[in-house]
Structures are given as C-alpha cells and as structure tokens.
Amino acid sequence: MSQRITIHDIARELNLTTATVSRALNDHPRISTETKQLVQEKARQLKYRRNKLASSLRSGKSHTIGVIIPSAQMNFFGSVVHGIENTASSNGYSIILYQSEETTSLEKKAIETFLSARVDGILASIAKETVDYTHYVELRKRNIPLVFFDRTNEELQVPSVVIDDYRGAFLATEHLIKNGYARIAHVAGPQHIKGFRDRLSGYKDALLANNRTIVNEYIYQGNVSLESGKEAADYFLNLTAPPDAVFAVEDFTALGVIKCMKERNVKIPEDFGIIGFANENFDEHITPALSSVDQQTVQMGKEAFNLLMEIIKANDGKARVKDDTKIVLDPVLFFRESSTGKSN
C-alpha cells in the first residue's frame, strides 16, 4: 500500500513551508492566487486527500450535518434529501441520514448519534408520534444549529422551511368544488403537527369561501398512511349521505381511498373525486392518475441547508438569524384524472 500523501510532501515538492501549503489549501486571504493555484495543482498531481478528522479537530468543524426524516418510504422525503445533499456537497459538506420511522424514540436516537459524530448542525422533520419536544429543546439549550423542514412546531421557535400548507389545501379543495363535486370530505393528519393543522384549516376555509357548509362527519381523523385512507373511505361510504369527493392530507392516504373505492365499485372521477398532497412518484402511474399538491421538495431541501449554514455562521459571529425565521414555499397543483369532474 502506498504511503498517504501529506501537506509535508506538497511543501517539499514546491519548496514551500507547510504553513503556506495549509493556508493555500484552506483559501487563506493572505496567500496569493498564484500560490493557491500552484499548491492546488500539485495536490491534484500527488492525489492528496485531506484528513477530515484532523481538519475538524483543528477547526472545530466536522463539515457534516445530520438529517432526520420520518420515513424513507415516502418519495417526498427522499426528494427533499436530494436537495439537501446536492447543496451540501457543493458547499463541502457531507450528511448523515437517519430515519425516525415516525417514532419519538428513534428521533432521540438520531440526535444522540449526530452529537456523537460532532455534526455542525441538524435538519429535522418531526415524527408524527412526537408530542414531547424535550430533545429539541435540549439542542437549543446547547446552541446546536437546528432547522425544521416540512413538519415543524412553532412553540419551539426553531427556524424552518415549509410549504404554504394552508394555501395548498385551499386550492385543492376549491378545485374539487369547481369541478362539480358537492359534498367534499377531508382525511386529516395528526393535528399536533402544524402542517396538517393548516391543511385542515385551508379545507374548511375553501368550503366557506364557496358558500359550502362544513360537515363535521366529513372530516376523518387519519394517521397519514395507506391503511388510514382505506378506513376513512370505508367510513365515508357508510354514512347516510356519503361525500362525493375527498381532499386527502397526503398521497398515501389518497391511495388508500382509491383502493377502497375500487373495492366498493365506486367510479373515479365520475362518481367520486379525489386529490392528495405531496405529488409522490406513483401519482401519475396509478389508475386513475392522482391529482396532488406538489411541495417543491428539492427547493425545500436547498433552502433548509442554506438556512442551516446561516445559523452555523451566526454561531461563529459572522451572521445573524432570528429564531422565528420561516421560509414559506408556494404550492404547485397538478391536476390529473382522479379529480376531473362528475358525470352528468
């Protein structure tokens, strides 16, 4: 095995001091552009690879961030991670990804893992099971840079990047109304999560804005899953006056509704309309293709990473970020076969 190339080797080849080589590789302002280029070219020739551990010990930075997602099964979160990873890589950062599987216990374990790895900051989307936020409060007390994405808790005063859930839900519900559906239901998500709460509010306000009555029995409390969607659809169809359309809190729930409707021989969209939220990969490949609200996932990932970098710089005294900083992205609606309107 060949010996590892060090900055001493580069210094010897160029007849420079190791301090000059180190500064050149770290883009120090006191080193001329010519010397930097000379050192970087020689580093490439010798196939020099930086010792990240040694570098992190000297600088106090690991150039690694931790990312917590609730579920890898949802393309939504995979797409957000894609945005995070691309932006992190272009900024010289790596990520450690941890899946909470929608549980508080794994969420806490993720944080312990990240702290052991001395990450420079954490990006997190809250698990639907989490109602005790002590572990996030502890991160704030320890001044660990933290940003929430998609799922947040406003009481914690943590900077966040979200979609405009309220507007997305309002527009989705209004779309069903404009396409002739008269009795529109909603399969909700856990209401302690702000985004799901906002989607319920958007649904209700769209009904009121269009002179429709809010019918409490048309609101089913689900838990964000395919099974929850099937159970909700079964419940709706057994009502005395069942709804003729559903706005589902997310696409796996919507898929569950579609499966149940097919089993009960209900025609979609002629007799029943449906629209989801998240614009998952499967939406356009199922029959009927599912209408949905896109959450600009890749952009969400990029914005979340950039906001975290601002906080890391703020901790170094190079910037300032307010605790209540919130970046809100616009929803984009995709209308497909599942909501095209009632038959005459």
TrEMBL record:
<dbReference type="Pfam" id="PF00356">
    <property type="entry name" value="LacI"/>
</dbReference>
<dbReference type="InterPro" id="IPR000843">
    <property type="entry name" value="HTH_LacI"/>
</dbReference>
<dbReference type="GO" id="GO:0003700">
    <property type="term" value="F:DNA-binding transcription factor activity"/>
</dbReference>
<protein>
    <submittedName>
        <fullName>LacI family DNA-binding transcriptional regulator</fullName>
    </submittedName>
</protein>
<dbReference type="InterPro" id="IPR028082">
    <property type="entry name" value="Peripla_BP_I"/>
</dbReference>
<keyword id="KW-0805">Transcription regulation</keyword>
<keyword id="KW-0238">DNA-binding</keyword>
<dbReference type="GO" id="GO:0000976">
    <property type="term" value="F:transcription cis-regulatory region binding"/>
</dbReference>
<dbReference type="InterPro" id="IPR010982">
    <property type="entry name" value="Lambda_DNA-bd_dom_sf"/>
</dbReference>
<feature type="domain" description="HTH lacI-type">
    <location>
        <begin position="5"/>
        <end position="59"/>
    </location>
</feature>
<keyword id="KW-0804">Transcription</keyword>
<dbReference type="InterPro" id="IPR001761">
    <property type="entry name" value="Peripla_BP/Lac1_sug-bd_dom"/>
</dbReference>
<dbReference type="Pfam" id="PF00532">
    <property type="entry name" value="Peripla_BP_1"/>
</dbReference>
